[in-house]
Amino acid sequence: MRLPARLLPVAALSAASALLTGCFADADPSAGPSAKGDGKRIRLAMMQPPRSGLSPLSDDAFKLSRWSTAETLVKLDEQGDAEPALATGWRQSGRTWTFEIRDGVTFHDGTELTPEAVVRSLTRAAGASPKPRILDGVELTAKAEDGHVAVTTAAEDPLVPQRLSSPQLAVLAARAYTGKTVDPVGAGTGPFELTKVNGTSSATLDRYDDYWGGRAKSPGIDVQFVPDGTARAAALRSGEADIVEAVPVSQAAVLDQDLITEVPMPRTNTLYLNTGKGVFKDAGLRAAAREAVDAKPIVEGVYEGRADVAEGLLGPALPWAADLRSPVRRAEAGDPSGRSVTIGTFTDRAELPEVAAALQQQLQKAGFRVKLEIREYANIESDALAGEFDAFVLSRATVLDSGDPAAYLYSDFGSDGSFNISQLAEKSVDAALDKASESRAGEARRQAVIEAEAAVLATDAAVPMLHERVIQGDAAGVTGAAHDPRERELVTADTYVK
Questions:
Q1: Dihedral of CA 422/311/408/437: which sign?
Q2: Residue 313 in contact with residue 410, Cβ under 8 Å?
Q3: Other C-beta atoms within 10 Å of 275: how many?
Q4: Whole-model pTM?
Q5: Suppose 27 and one of 114, 222, 433, 497 were both cysteines; which one would form an S-S bond, judging by CB atoms 3.0 to 4.6 Å apart?
């Protein structure tokens, strides 16, 4: 029988560490321009390998952002408000927002950042299939005018600046767009230049000395993609990695507590129920599943108390949500009568298979027959999006792209949403999502977002279970690593290894 990760002996942890020893040893700190300057190269162990060749038009964009190699026109402050990045200012006139582009910025290939370069990147993103999530339901065009960039949407959109902060709308040099796919190697504007990608195993970045924001403190980054959470934790424990992304809860207790940081995340662990076909097309059976789910023992057992039981889709990282939320009217529970369902999830987040196993027991106790299907995320995502499972367990960031949860709600629950695992097509939900998307930033928008959340919850298309806290490992010699709830920053120009 395979032991849970928390019960693995020390020998197993040593073996997991050995998986990385040779990998990081291969990095040559004396090679190329990365040898110039202060400190050591940063050895970074990341959870998920690239899914789309590091194309910024996919979720791989967040890796490029976390490595500080690709940048956007706008970034977000701690409150989620837009502030300058490659754009120094902007103004709105009806459906059009005009952005002033920063002078003196060069891409890593030496070419200049111009309004035309910005338009090229935004146009490629707007025409992509599928679109970046942040553009779900948004028709956007960009044009260079009088040394500025004019961004126009089909309908007046109060969140254009926040949308343009999404890593999936990064601005890259022309060389990135010469093929069928977007290739970010040598094409960014950030303090680190992506110089080499070894498939799904590793990547290399060197300091870009001409960075517009000032020279980075570290000479470079050596990235290893390590889906196995035990191996990532062991790499920190043994000193084989300097920064470790997403340490599993089950491993946190065996690490030096001074080396880990727990960050409350706008991330919800949710059971998505397939409303389009199968057992859970029946609203009564979805209600039965929802009533069967008890998140408290999952939080206390699987997450060892390092999570919060969910009251809705939006958690404590958005404290205003709890103040605005009111009770939701839902369907009455039906009788499962031994109906068979399949729950899918993935291994990349070490807790999810354990969560799925706990749900299997809870649903079986309620009268369902439950089978589990568990794979790596890269091998299961397409089936999940195609509605091949009755239910799917997913850890989902709720403000990943714009700092505003309306985009996540539209992507996951809108009839035209690109990440609609629940296959939900409900007019009342679409109407609530449209209202949220159209509302101006501030109290009115927050209220509309909560009303949209209530519309989704009323369908039982999603059963929110818990809100996660991410655990990041930083070795003793690391200073300046980012601990970002939105998972946009990790290694910055200020990150340094003694």
A1: positive
A2: no
A3: 23
A4: 0.74
A5: 222
